Every structure is written in C-alpha cells, then in structure tokens.
C-alpha cells in the first residue's frame, strides 16, 4: 500500500479518535461536576448532623448543670435553716463556711450555664445557616444529577456511533500498522500522528512535542517511502497541509 494512502487512512482514523477523546473528556467533566455537587451536599449534611449532635449534647449537659445548681441551692437553703439550730460558735462558723463554699460553687455553675447558653446560641445560628445551605446544595445536587444523567446518555449514544465508525475506518488499515498506531496512542495519548511544521526562523519541528526535527528526517517524510517517526515523541510524521484524508 502506498505510504500516502496509509497516511490518509491513519489521518481518517485520527479524526474519529479526536471525537472519541472529546467524548471521554465530556464524560469526565460531567462526572466531576456531579462529584463536586454531591461532595458539597454531603458536607452540608454531615455538618448539619454534627450541629444537631452538639445541640443535643449541650442541652443534656446544661440540664445536668441546672440539676446540680438546684441541688446546691437546696443544700444552701438547708444550711440556712440549720444555721440557728447550732449551739456553739464553732459550729456556727463552720456552717457559714459551708454556705459560702456552696454559694461559690453555685456561681461557678451559673457561669458555666451561661457560657453553654451562649455556645448553644452560636451553634443554633450556624445550624440555621447550614440547614439553608443543605436545602440549596441538595436541590443543586438533584438538578446536576438529572442534567449529568442526560449528558452521559447522550455521550454514550454518540460514543457507540463513533466506535462503529472507528471499526469501519480501521478495516482498511493493515494490522501491523493498526497495532503501531494504537501503541503510540496508548503510550503518548492524543494523536499518534503529528504534522511537520515550521518554527522560529523556519526550523522544522514536530507539531505535537514542539521539538526540532533533523533535516534528514524531514527529507525522509517528504519522500513518502516509509512512515517516519519523530525522534522525540515517536509519533508518525506527515507534512502538515500536504496530506488529505481518503
């Protein structure tokens, strides 16, 4: 098979592969959008659960402190009732000391309760914001999920058509050449072919890797006696603008 014919078949196949790559990027972008929307929703959901747990634990701990405060108050009242029943000054002073200590303990507990109430208010305010954000992120996730499902279905249909087209275009390519093409595509990614272009000062270079080409390499490509590869990236070279697809 003439070299120009082989190049034409490979370029024709490359057109399909370019579209397949575009489909793959579209699928990846769509899935990334869905993953981001889902991550935001799950983050808000987790934060809402943490806030609820913090509020519940705060209420439980505050009730325990309030119960302790009540017990201290009952104890202080009991001491006050017993204060005038003592018979010695020593017992009287001891009772007063107990009352003062209980009063001090009550102040500490009251301060803790006030701190917990402030923290509770802050958590409730944050929980309200998170709750609103959760509704928004949940709605967005559902919308993106539906949109992405449609996009992926459309891309899957397009992909199936392109795969069939690729089979048709591959059918005319000799098996060794097809294997070489697929190997380069797998190793380098993107196009296994690259045009010879002119860089600065007219120096010939590989369009894909942008590395300069030896003059002898360009001559061999122009002769079209064999398929010549770029010394740097290994892609099959052709003279850009001089080869047409069949």
Structure overview:
There is one protein chain. Helix 1 runs antiparallel to helix 2 (89-170). It is rod-shaped and about 125 Å long. The protein is built from 4 helices and 3 strands, in the order αααββαβ. The longest helix has 82 residues, at 89-170. Strand 1 and strand 2 form a beta hairpin. Helices cover 75% and strands 5% of the residues. The protein has 2 domains: 14-171, Helix Hairpins, CATH 1.10.287; 176-239, no CATH class. The protein starts with a helix and ends in a 7-residue tail after the last strand. Strands 2-1-3 form a 3-stranded mixed β-sheet. With 246 residues, it is mainly α.
Secondary-structure topology with pairs:
Layout: H1 3-82, H2 89-170, H3 175-188, E1 193-198, E2 204-206, H4 215-223, E3 236-239
Parallel strand pairs: 1-3
Antiparallel strand pairs: 1-2
Helix pairs in contact: 1-2
- What CATH first level of the largest domain would be assigned? Mainly Alpha
Structurally, the number of domains stands at: 2
Number of helices: 4
Mean pLDDT across all residues, rounded?
A: 93
Q: Helix coverage percent of residues?
A: over 70%
Main β sheet profile: 3 strands, mixed
CATH topological fold name of the largest domain: Helix Hairpins
Q: Note the gap between the termini.
A: 14 Å
- Class by SSE composition: mainly alpha
How does the overall form come out from the CA principal axes? rod-shaped
- Roughly how many Å is the radius of gyration? 39 Å
Low-confidence stretches: none
Kindly estimate the percentage of residues that lie in beta strands according to DSSP.
5-15%
Write down how many β-strands occur, each being a DSSP E stretch of 2 or more residues: 3
State the order of secondary-structure elements, H for helix, E for strand: HHHEEHE
CATH architecture of the largest domain: Orthogonal Bundle
């Amino acid at each position: 098979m003439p070299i120009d014919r082989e190049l034409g078949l490979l370029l024709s196949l490359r057109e399909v592969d370019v579209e397949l790559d575009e489909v793959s990027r579209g699928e990846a972008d769509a899935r990334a959008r869905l993953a981001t929307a889902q991550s935001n929703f799950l983050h808000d959901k987790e934060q809402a659960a943490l806030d609820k747990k913090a509020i519940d634990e705060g209420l439980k701990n505050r009730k325990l402190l309030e119960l302790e405060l009540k017990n201290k108050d009952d104890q202080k009242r009991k001491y006050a009732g017993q204060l005038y029943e003592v018979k010695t000054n020593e017992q009287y002073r001891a009772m007063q000391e107990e009352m003062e200590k209980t009063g001090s303990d009550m102040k500490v507990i009251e301060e803790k309760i006030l701190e917990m109430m402030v923290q509770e208010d802050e958590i409730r305010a944050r929980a309200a914001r998170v709750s609103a954000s959760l509704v928004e992120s949940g709605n967005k996730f559902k919308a993106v999920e539906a949109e992405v499902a449609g996009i992926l279905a459309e891309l899957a249909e397009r992909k199936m058509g392109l795969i069939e087209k690729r089979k048709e275009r591959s059918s005319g390519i000799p098996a060794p050449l097809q294997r070489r093409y697929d190997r380069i595509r797998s190793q380098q990614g993107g196009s296994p072919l690259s045009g010879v272009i002119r860089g600065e000062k007219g120096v010939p270079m590989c369009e894909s890797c942008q590395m300069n080409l030896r003059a002898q390499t360009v001559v061999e490509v122009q002769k079209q006696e064999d398929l010549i590869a770029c010394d740097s990236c290994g892609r099959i070279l052709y003279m850009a603008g001089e080869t047409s697809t069949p």
